[in-house]
Amino acid sequence: MTALTLRAGTPPADGDLVHGSVVALGRMAVYIDLSPFGTGTIYGREYQSARDLLRKVNIGDEIAAKVVASENEDGYIELSLKEARQALLWSEAERLARGRATIELAVKDANKGGLILEWQGISGFLPASQLTAEHYPHVAGGDKDQILEALRALVGERILVSVLSVLPKEGKLIFTEKSGVHKEKQALVDKYNVGDELEGEVTGTVDFGAFVKLEESLEGLVHLSEIDWGLVDDPRAFVSAGDRVRVKIIDIKDDKISLSIKALKTNPWKEAGTRYHRGERVDGVIIKYNRHGALASIEEGIAGLVHMSEFGGSESELHATLELGKSYPFLIMHFDPSEQRMALSYTQALIKPAAKELA
């Protein structure tokens, strides 16, 4: 976007933003001095679209306008006040985005992806991912209809946001609520350290974990891999909104806190190292299939992989032989408690070789 002032020695071109003083007023026209390049005029349709503003204009007033024709048939530089106002608004929006300035806006509407806001007549979108923890819809199961209902509850509220990106061609703005509270949140986060053990309240569960409130306006995430030493497919089977839980801070990155529940529980792999050995025959329950084979649990929190290769790489044969929830004999082929890894063999357990043959 060009500057508001005329470039020295360069006549204004279509699309340029210019400014000058009003030198004459007609019944349906305004004339503006654009020396040394001539006189600009706002008339006809452009006058009609901005007539409410132009009726308040007096001779000598400074006006910013946008060039729509560098020279019309009467020799005037044709101008648009409405287009200039839009250009100035987009310029101001870009300034707000660069400075991450905080503004307060009312929520106009909501959809399944986020909230609709409006700034200076320009429609804007606030994605749900850019909402603070206070307004983020923690919906069990991620049900889209429930998410929409939670977002619609915010319609009419005024919230503090910043301009994240400016899209003039699409006539849209993208907002974020996070940077508006970043400094305040960072000050809260700075009070904590990795290793701190705390008590918090579960505010919501999602497929990938649970959110825990540590204090007002500050939440941390317990990823599903940090909920328990055993297999966690669904966090909702372990915690629910409103539960009080003990957590340990395992990572702090920027203003995000990662928490662990299982870090405050005894690691079953440590004791398992004294009880199980390579070549030992054990019983295990099939608890999950993955792309490599099947996971068999030999005790709470201790599971090993039965590789697909034992079944000729056939997933259907694996599933037919080892059914979920059933117990089978296995032979421990590899056991490394320090890495929490164990490989099991079903076919070798049927042969039941002596442990010394695998040593």
Low-confidence stretches: 1-8, 354-359
β-strand number = 20
Q: Profile the largest sheet.
A: 5 strands, mixed, barrel
How do the SSEs run, as a string of H and E? EEEHHEEHEEEHEEHEEEEEHEEEHEEHH
What is the rounded distance between the termini?
75 Å
The CATH superfamily of the largest domain is identified as Nucleic acid-binding proteins
pLDDT average, as an integer? 83
Tell me the number of structural domains. 4
Strand content: 35-45%
Global morphology: elongated
The proportion of residues forming helix, as a percent range, comes to 10-25%
Strand order of the largest sheet: 1-2-3-5-4
Q: What is the oligomeric state here?
A: single chain
The structural class is: alpha+beta
Q: CATH class of the largest domain, anyone?
A: Mainly Beta
Helix tally?
9
| CATH architecture descriptor text of the largest domain | Beta Barrel
Rg over CA atoms, rounded to whole Å, is 33 Å
CATH topology of the largest domain: OB fold (Dihydrolipoamide Acetyltransferase, E2P)
Describe the structure.
The chain has 359 residues and is of the alpha+beta class. It has 4 domains: 17-86, Nucleic acid-binding proteins (OB fold (Dihydrolipoamide Acetyltransferase, E2P)), CATH 2.40.50.140; 100-181, OB fold (Dihydrolipoamide Acetyltransferase, E2P) (Beta Barrel); 191-264, Nucleic acid-binding proteins (OB fold (Dihydrolipoamide Acetyltransferase, E2P), Beta Barrel); 269-358, OB fold (Dihydrolipoamide Acetyltransferase, E2P) (Beta Barrel). Helix content is 19%, strand content 40%. It has 9 helices and 20 strands. The strands form 4 sheets. It has a 5-stranded mixed beta barrel with strand order 1-2-3-5-4. A hairpin with a 2-residue loop joins strand 11 and strand 12 (209-215).
